[in-house]
Amino acid sequence: MNSLSREDALRLAERCLGLTQADQAEVLVYSTASYLTRFADNRIHQNVGEENLQVSVRAVLGKRVGVAGTNRMDDDGIAECCANAVVAARNAVEDPDFPGLPAPQPIEQRDRVRDSTLEFDAQRRAEAARDLIDQSRMRGLTAAGRVEASATTVAVANSLGVRVAMPLTEVRASVLSMGDSGSGWADFTGDDADALSAEELGEAAASLAERSADPGSLDPGTHTVVLAPDAVATMLDFLAYTGFSAKAVAEGSSFMTGHLGEKVLSERVTIADDALAGDALGMTFDFEGMPKRPIELVREGVVVGPVTDSYWAARTGAENTGGALPAPNTFGPMPLNLRLAAGDASEDEMIASVKRGVYVTRFHYVNVEDPTRAVLTGMTRDGTFLIEDGKLGRPVKNLRFTQSAVEALANVLAVGEHRRYAGDEGSPPFVPPLLLEKFDFTGQTR
Fold this sequence. Notes:
The chain has 446 residues and is α+β, with helices and mostly antiparallel strands. The chain is built from 10 helices and 19 strands. It has a 6-stranded antiparallel sheet. The radius of gyration is 23 Å and the shape is globular. The protein starts with 5 loop residues before the first helix and ends with a strand. The relative contact order is 0.14.
């Protein structure tokens, strides 16, 4: 399993630059090889692979910008893509704030390719799926999920001299274990297939499913909660989406707007975007080829500032932190390497400190009601339990909630000492479990 080499990706980018007749040009090359094994009803039902090579060209004519993309790599396909980007720029509306493409800056290269992942073939994925399934099957439960491995190379080049490329590997696995009246969930994300313990993952999901059987009712209200890492990851994902972008701050739709330097969250909360951490995943540069700079977004509850890209750095007078997404995008810059600082409590200690509360494994069907306070609405799923007298008690039916993530994180009583990558989609944050004093549940599923 291999994507395009770093050298070949850069050569392709150079080739496209030479064909783009514009004042400035930028080329993004994205090469990926992804292989997926899915299972349901305790058996593998899908085994697929995809290899794709895409090029995106951004052409600049004065203050007009156009973008075109293709996965046709023949001479005519590439030439047409480059020409289409120029046509798009010619017909675009001028943006007087566009600062031009960024000039090159030094990039820290990191080795994030693991041989174990490149060798994680169909046989090994099937063995991992078997281990995930067996933990449910032996308990009379039914398992569904996936095991996926990918190799990706990203290259960015522009006419001002940016030339960067980086290969990556990634492994993901998830398992949903289901009984007649209960379910449990577990997931894994990493760059090293040898770090995936499918048996342990399957056991965690199956144990939750067994424990969550025959759930009872719980009245709506405000409860103390212990959130497992997957639930915490969902909150951080939505804060990234609604609040951690310089665009959102400038436009007044972020919880950060008007509160820079103010304590808004609990002093126990420090959130960073750090692609250079030793255990970080993904690229060390953004989709403009700019270095991803480690930045604290919130320090001990105090709002420090959002992530930027070249456009929003120039527009706001801030440093470019390397948060650019592929052009064009409507979101502005985005943090893709979120990390919530660890605390000193174990999950068991959190539970032991709660007289009466709720334990939440993860959230589901989450949507934004109010971006300015990151008010989220959704449901719990796959393991929701009552906490009574410091012990994990009876399972409860899934609860509906409407809760501001900002207000929830303003009432943190404890932060877990152990962190992991959590979440099944996108760029998962690195998070611990949390103990929150208040969380608003509005109803219950039937």
